[in-house]
Amino acid sequence: MDEAANENYSSKMVFVTVGTTCFDALVKAVDSQQVKEELTNKGYTDILIQMGRGSYVPSKVTREDGSLTVDYFTFSPSIADYLKSASLIISHAGSGSIFETLRLGKPLIVVVNEDLMDNHQSELAEELAERKHLFYARPQTLHHTIQAMDLESLVPYTPGNPMPVVTLMNRFLGFPTE
């Protein structure tokens, strides 16, 4: 890429996180040609994958032909900076990852790990998707979700007010409520 083109280049990074688990199905889905094409069609330029304990290694790609760049790592002490710099987050259905992303006001696609036995995570993801705070997918439907997603349809997440609970606990424990 020449310097003039590089100056006009505006990156749109997709950050993918699987947390501390192994979620190879998500990493494979993101690494698929279908998902990469849909992300390119939506204007995304870079994919960074936090792959956790997984054994599937995505293909690293550097930009030479105008395609997406793809990079990955296993773990980081904190993913906060990656979340902040991303234009789109694709995440496993862990509540920490979900709420951290929603608090940042970032567009989010939650992909449910169907291999988990007690899949309470899917209930949380489905409920938040129903309220239009995020998009919900399974590994095999991720490319369809990206293709159909309309970021303008998302409703910002507003955390609840904890004060009524605090007041109730203070009364229960006999502390002053003022």
Automatic annotation (TrEMBL):
Domain spans labelled Glycosyl transferase family 28 C-terminal: 13-158
Gene3D superfamilies membership: Glycogen Phosphorylase B (3.40.50.2000)
Statement: the UniProt record of this protein carries the keyword Transferase: yes
Gene Ontology BP, a term: dolichol-linked oligosaccharide biosynthetic process
Keyword terms of this UniProt record: Transferase
Listed GO CC annotations: UDP-N-acetylglucosamine transferase complex
Keyword match Transferase: yes
Gene Ontology molecular function: hexosyltransferase activity
Protein name stated in the entry: UDP-N-acetylglucosamine transferase subunit
Gene source species: Canna indica
